[in-house]
Amino acid sequence: MTDATERTIATPIRGFAWMLAALVALGPLAIDAYLPAIPSMANDLNTSLHQIEITLSLFLLGFAAGQLFGGPLSDKHGRRLTILIGLTLFMLGSLLTAIGWRIELLWVGRLLQAFGGGMGVVNTMAMVRDRYSGRESAQVLSQIVTILMIAPLAAPFIGSFLLLFADWRAIFMFLFAYAAVLLLVLRLNLPETRLAQHVTIISPLRRYLAVLKSRPALAFLFSTAMANAGMFAFITGSPGVYMGHYGASEALYPFLFGANILTLTISNQINIRLLRHFDARLILRAAQYGQLLIGATMLAALLWLPLTLFTLVPLVMLFVGMQGFIVANGMSSATDFFPHSAATATALISASGFTLGAISGALVGFFGDGSPLAMVSIMAICPLLGIVLRSLLQR
């Protein structure tokens, strides 16, 4: 009996997808919940909006670093231990951010929060890979992502709701409480899934070099990472574009932001069904070209036509929706090359996406002039780079 078969027929874990989705939700909750509070944070700390926006780029970098550290730790010492340590660090970072009275403390708190979150989240794909392979892995991951869509949809509303009754610090106390409850639930209900019989003592550097030397795996790594970079360009630029340039209210912004989660949820459901008939790699390639076409359409409309808010929003929805076909299929395709070091491979893939996301977000802030040009341009360039890099590496 093959290893893949053993994973596929493994004894089901009750609530497996729900627990992993709740774990992955740490990222979007920590990223999106405080977006409506950015202006009030700047006023309260007597600093500029730019100084507050830096916390988002720092979070993405810290999240990437946490995954790079947590991946090898998980492969060597187990998924559960890494998750529990990560959640503890996330709680400490949330608490430090909530009580911070200077912008520097916010930076440190967000880095610690992100590092812990990255350590925990990196185990999600690894735990799926421990139990499933190939098409089954992509289907389970799509199910998790579908459940996960509740977090980015709800996060801006949670932030706006808390601001009605308290200041921005309540948002980070909410994140602290969420991580505390999740720590208890996973400690009691989530078993270890690492395949201990396959564990060998290999240094983290050698594990990462093994991934980097695999051209086919790198092709899917960059496909996923560039797609994430395009989405983070939108996340970083959308408050300024939607509320600043187009004049959308703080009450309307969560609805405009949440509309993208609708298309992402639908695309994940469609992806689950398509995987019954088509190879994950074929679906990924088609989605990349679709995302490139949508990005080019947004840029052309901005340059040569009046791009109104209600023209931009549906195009962004379609752009983000393509993530449902790219990320799940790219992650499952890449980790198939590394069945016994899935967490390390997942860490490198996911960390690359968050690092490029931090870079694309910083570029949006640096070149932004209050118009949608910087955001839309980077969103159009990212899928093009993803296609080019994948094509070069698959030759």
Automatic annotation (TrEMBL):
Protein localization: Cell inner membrane; Cell membrane
Keywords, sorted A to Z: Cell inner membrane, Cell membrane, Membrane, Transmembrane, Transmembrane helix, Transport
Family per record: Belongs to the major facilitator superfamily. Bcr/CmlA family.
Taxonomy, superkingdom: Bacteria
Topology class, membrane: Multi-pass membrane protein
Pfam family, one: MFS_1
Organism listed in the record: Aliidiomarina sedimenti
Residue intervals passing through the bilayer: 16-37, 49-69, 81-101, 107-128, 140-165, 171-190, 217-239, 251-270, 282-305, 311-331, 343-367, 373-393
Listed name of the protein: Bcr/CflA family efflux transporter
InterPro entries in UniProt: Efflux_drug-R_Bcr/CmlA, MFS, MFS_dom, MFS_trans_sf
Stored PANTHER family: MAJOR FACILITATOR SUPERFAMILY, POLYAMINE TRANSPORTER 2-RELATED
Domain Major facilitator superfamily (MFS) profile: 13-395
